[in-house]
Amino acid sequence: MEFHYPNGRKYSPVKNEEKTEKKQKKWSYGKRGMTLEDDINETNQFYLERGIAAIHKKPTPVQIVQVDYPRRSAAVIKEAYFKQASTTDYNGVYKGKYIDFEAKETQNESSFPFKNFHRHQIQHMETILKQKGICFVLLRFSTAEEIYLLDAKDLLLFWERMETGGRKSMTKAEISERGHLISLGFQPRIDYIKIIDYVYNLNE
Amino acid sequence: MEFHYPNGRKYSPVKNEEKTEKKQKKWSYGKRGMTLEDDINETNQFYLERGIAAIHKKPTPVQIVQVDYPRRSAAVIKEAYFKQASTTDYNGVYKGKYIDFEAKETQNESSFPFKNFHRHQIQHMETILKQKGICFVLLRFSTAEEIYLLDAKDLLLFWERMETGGRKSMTKAEISERGHLISLGFQPRIDYIKIIDYVYNLNE
């Protein structure tokens, strides 16, 4: 006899455990941003529960090709592909203002390479700035365990420098000069809202 | 010999055409909101291209269970499930303000049933209002081809009425009294930004 989870997935204790382990290894290899993403999600959850801000990560965009509808259980997507996102990953509202950001990390110790960013994300940030939204990046230097908030305006300047033949990265010195180091804590883990108040003059 | 699209999908002219036709039928049956969604996406694209607003539909949230990495082609998602969204479908920025909305339609001619809304979406709207975001619903009466913008505050009042034992829908009269009929056009198809200027006093 077969058992199913409420979402329709078949329950098979031994096999699934093996599969999960394998899958997690694959993921943590492929998605180095995992920890940073987890920390930001937890921080956003903290803000949401306390009524401080409502900021969410957007779902991963997926092109669905084939869906099966097995009897008595939920629809199963049998064939789909990852699509490139046309926006940044996080957005939401804080004190009525539109907040929009992307989070990236590097293992490089002295500079942040631009290969971590896609052109369409940069274009999206330009659009948000034109619409007077608050737009920034959270940049994590994973070896030093330091996270900086850098306004999109500054990021665009460095991007422009690359486009006109300059270096393909921002130095850590440049980031720490123009950006803002975020103090890391237990709850919330990455308290970027505090910095936003200060950087964008949102203190009432 | 096999050919592949840039996204890794196998090219097989005859079969695919059949599949697409079948799939589209399935989708339009399962997702009655298709046309409304298309019209809103086109409207948002219009706003984006002209620098009027930057509002996007969030990707459909999917729980990915199994991913294959075939040689020489893109990762293929082989098993995934639809997840329930924790927010509304559309958000973005207009004149610095956070914009958040959900779009629904009904074939009912005289009232809009609440069964089209989920509790978590209603809760999300409450949160957005507390954060002083602009939050509303676009309600389409498909038979009459009429679309109304109704502020989330009003929607919440009607929802509250249901929760306290009242009717499980809003009448069309109530919606037309408290909401705002949107004129439908060719470009943009559903010009809701015009209404927003008026309803939320955003004219400078």
TrEMBL record, chains A, B:
<dbReference type="InterPro" id="IPR011335">
    <property type="entry name" value="Restrct_endonuc-II-like"/>
</dbReference>
<keyword id="KW-0234">DNA repair</keyword>
<keyword id="KW-0233">DNA recombination</keyword>
<keyword id="KW-0460">Magnesium</keyword>
<keyword id="KW-0227">DNA damage</keyword>
<keyword id="KW-0255">Endonuclease</keyword>
<keyword id="KW-0479">Metal-binding</keyword>
<feature type="binding site">
    <location>
        <position position="87"/>
    </location>
    <ligand>
        <name>Mg(2+)</name>
    </ligand>
</feature>
<comment type="function">
    <text>Endonuclease that resolves Holliday junction intermediates in genetic recombination. Cleaves mobile four-strand junctions by introducing symmetrical nicks in paired strands. Promotes annealing of linear ssDNA with homologous dsDNA. Required for DNA repair, homologous recombination and chromosome segregation.</text>
</comment>
<feature type="region of interest" description="Disordered">
    <location>
        <begin position="1"/>
        <end position="26"/>
    </location>
</feature>
<keyword id="KW-0378">Hydrolase</keyword>
<feature type="binding site">
    <location>
        <position position="102"/>
    </location>
    <ligand>
        <name>Mg(2+)</name>
    </ligand>
</feature>
<dbReference type="InterPro" id="IPR011856">
    <property type="entry name" value="tRNA_endonuc-like_dom_sf"/>
</dbReference>
<keyword id="KW-0540">Nuclease</keyword>
<dbReference type="InterPro" id="IPR004612">
    <property type="entry name" value="Resolv_RecU"/>
</dbReference>
<feature type="binding site">
    <location>
        <position position="89"/>
    </location>
    <ligand>
        <name>Mg(2+)</name>
    </ligand>
</feature>
<feature type="binding site">
    <location>
        <position position="121"/>
    </location>
    <ligand>
        <name>Mg(2+)</name>
    </ligand>
</feature>
<keyword id="KW-0963">Cytoplasm</keyword>
<dbReference type="Pfam" id="PF03838">
    <property type="entry name" value="RecU"/>
</dbReference>
<feature type="site" description="Transition state stabilizer">
    <location>
        <position position="104"/>
    </location>
</feature>
<protein>
    <recommendedName>
        <fullName>Holliday junction resolvase RecU</fullName>
        <ecNumber>3.1.21.10</ecNumber>
    </recommendedName>
</protein>
<comment type="similarity">
    <text>Belongs to the RecU family.</text>
</comment>
